[in-house]
Specification:
By secondary structure, this protein is mostly helical. Helices cover 63% and strands 0% of the residues. It has twelve helices and no strands. α3 packs parallel to α6 and α8 runs antiparallel to α10. The protein is globular. The N and C termini lie far apart (52 Å). Keywords: Dioxygenase, Heme, Iron, Metal-binding, Oxidoreductase, Tryptophan catabolism. Belongs to the tryptophan 2,3-dioxygenase family.
Length: 253
C-alpha cells in the first residue's frame, strides 16, 4: 500500500479532481447536471453499502452481534439518506426532464450493477438480472459471486443454527424465528439481529416507494429509458423482501 505524505491536501486525499471532473452532461441544459450528480451520488452510497454489508456478514459469521448491530444501523442510515435524495430529484419537473431525456439513450438505473449486487447480498437473489451484463465481464463475474456466496439472510439462518435452532427446512426456520420472538429475553442477540434485518427491508421498501412516486411525478406511465415498463414495473417491486419470514411471523406473535 502506498503511504502518502503527512502534508497531503484535502483535495488530493479525496481525489477531488477525479470526482468533480466526472460530470459530463450530454446537453447544455441546466437540469441535466442535477440528474447526473444525484445518480453518481447514489452509486457512491451503494459502494459504501456493499462495503458495510460485506463487513456485517463477516462479523455475523463470528457471532459478533454488537458490531453487527452497529454496522447494520449504518447501512440503515445510508438507505434513509438515499431515499431522501429522491426529494431533490422531484424538483425536476416533467417539462425540465423531457428537454434532455433523449441524451440518456438506453441508459437506465435499471442497469445499476451495484444495486442488483446489494439485493443479492441481502438475500433477494433473482438470476434473471444477470442478462443485463456481458458474460465473462468483470461486473458479470461480481454479480455471479454475489448470487453464489451466502447472503446476509443465509448468514442469519446459519447464526440460528449455531445457537441450537432447527433450520432443516423453510418451515423449521420460520418456527425457529417465531420461537426467538416469543422468547426474546432469552435470545436477545438473535432478536436484535432480526429487528435490524427488518429495518433494512423496510428501508428498501421505502426507497422503492419513493422511487416509483418520483417516476410517476416526472414521466407518468411512459416507458423507462432502458426499455423497462417504468412506473408499472417499479410498483411490482414494492413487495420484494429479503427476509420474508421475519415479516410473516408477526401475524403469529
Amino acid at each position: 500500500m502506498t503511504v502518502k505524505p503527512a502534508g497531503i491536501s484535502y483535495a488530493d486525499y479525496l481525489d477531488l479532481d477525479t470526482i468533480l471532473g466526472a460530470q459530463a452532461p450530454h446537453s447544455e441544459l441546466h437540469d441535466e447536471m442535477l440528474f447526473i450528480i444525484i445518480h453518481q451520488n447514489k452509486e457512491l452510497w451503494l459502494k459504501q453499502l456493499l462495503h458495510e454489508l460485506a463487513y456485517a456478514i463477516e462479523l455475523l459469521r463470528e457471532d459478533n452481534f454488537t458490531l453487527v448491530h452497529k454496522t447494520l444501523s449504518r447501512v440503515h442510515r445510508i438507505q434513509a439518506v438515499m431515499t431522501l435524495s429522491w426529494d431533490v430529484l422531484t424538483t425536476l419537473t416533467p417539462v425540465d426532464y423531457m428537454k434532455f431525456r433523449h441524451v440518456l439513450g438506453t441508459s437506465s438505473g435499471f442497469q445499476s450493477a451495484q444495486f442488483r449486487e446489494f439485493e443479492y447480498r441481502l438475500g433477494i437473489k433473482n438470476p434473471v438480472y444477470l442478462k443485463n451484463y456481458e458474460e465473462g465481464s468483470e461486473v458479470r463475474q461480481r454479480m455471479e459471486r454475489a448470487l453464489e456466496e451466502p447472503s446476509l439472510a443465509d448468514e442469519a439462518t446459519a447464526a440460528l443454527a449455531r445457537h441450537g435452532f432447527d433450520v432443516s427446512s423453510e418451515e423449521q426456520i420460520a418456527h425457529s424465528w417465531l420461537t426467538v420472538y416469543r422468547n426474546a429475553e432469552d435470545n436477545l442477540a438473535l432478536y436484535g439481529l432480526a429487528e435490524k434485518l427488518v429495518d433494512l427491508d423496510e428501508a428498501m421498501a421505502a426507497w422503492r416507494h419513493r422511487h416509483v412516486l418520483m417516476v410517476e411525478r416526472v414521466i407518468g406511465m411512459k416507458t423507462g429509458t432502458g426499455g423497462s415498463a417504468g412506473a408499472p414495473y417499479l410498483r411490482e417491486t414494492l413487495t420484494k423482501r429479503a427476509f420474508p419470514v421475519l415479516w410473516n411471523l408477526r401475524t403469529e406473535i
